[in-house]
Amino acid sequence: MRIISGKFGGRRIQPVPGTKTRPTTDKVKESLFNMIGPYFDGEQTFLDLFAGSGAVAIEAVSRGIKQAVLVDRQFAAYKTIKNNVEIAGDEKNNFKVLKMDAEQALKKLKGKQFNYIFLDPPYAEQQMRKQLAEIKQDQLIASSGIVICETDNKTELSEMDGYELIKQKNYGLTIITIYKNKE
């Protein structure tokens, strides 16, 4: 695994040991950032609720996101994220890493707003619609914010209350769905 582009581009990062996480492939990650960026002006914030290795949030900061909050409940993932943030070179303290599940994080982060939120839960445990509703209800997404959902090709996401579906792309086993917050 590697950071593809930006200020940390080319640095190798580590996957989470074991089989409990499923990393976003470089191909999907590159395509995702081409759809939402590909680069940012340094004022936006990014939330990754199921961070795994932290690769997507680290890529976001590498491309100009000001701060990323990375959440994962597994100790192995938490430890891997901490190591990968160090590999990236967190000289500006652009990362906050939380060891907790998504529900706890949503409660803890209430009152904060993010420009980008990335949801990539374990496929067997997806509660994407519920989490999208909670994000909207608790106003965690900025007024023109974007929510990126990574699902398997069996999960069907379409229109959601409070969101505008702006893009959906199929990558074989993986589907990326992008919503924009509707005010």
List the helices and strands and how they pair.
Elements (H helix, E strand, L loop, with lengths): L25 H11 L8 E4 L6 H8 L4 E6 L2 H14 L6 E5 L2 H7 L5 E6 L8 H10 L3 E12 L10 E8 L3 E8 L2
Parallel strand pairs: 1-2, 1-4, 2-3, 4-5
Antiparallel strand pairs: 5-7, 6-7
CATH topology: Rossmann fold
CATH level 4 superfamily:
Vaccinia Virus protein VP39
Low-confidence stretches: none
Mean pLDDT: 91
Helix content: 25-40%
Per CATH, the class reads: Alpha Beta
Radius of gyration: 15 Å
Largest sheet, order of strands side by side? 3-2-1-4-5-7-6
CATH architectural arrangement? 3-Layer(aba) Sandwich
Number of domains: 1
Portion in beta strands: 25-35%
What is the helix tally?
A: 5
Number of strands: 7
> How widely separated are the two ends?
37 Å
Describe, in short, the structure shown.
The protein is α/β, with parallel strands linked by helices and 183 residues long. Helices cover 27% and strands 27% of the residues. It has a seven-stranded mixed beta sheet with strand order 3-2-1-4-5-7-6, sandwiched between helices.
Q: How would you sum up this structure, described in words?
A:
- The chain is an alpha/beta fold and 183 residues long.
- The chain has a single domain, classed as Rossmann fold (3-Layer(aba) Sandwich), CATH 3.40.50.
- It is 27% helix and 27% strand.
- It contains 5 helices and 7 strands, in the order αβαβαβαβαβββ.
- The chain has helices at residues 26-36, 55-62, 75-88, 102-108, 128-137, and strands at residues 45-48, 67-72, 95-99, 114-119, 141-152, 163-170, 174-181.
- Strands 3-2-1-4-5-7-6 form a 7-stranded mixed β-sheet, sandwiched between helices.
- The longest helix has 14 residues, at 75-88.
- The mean pLDDT is 91.
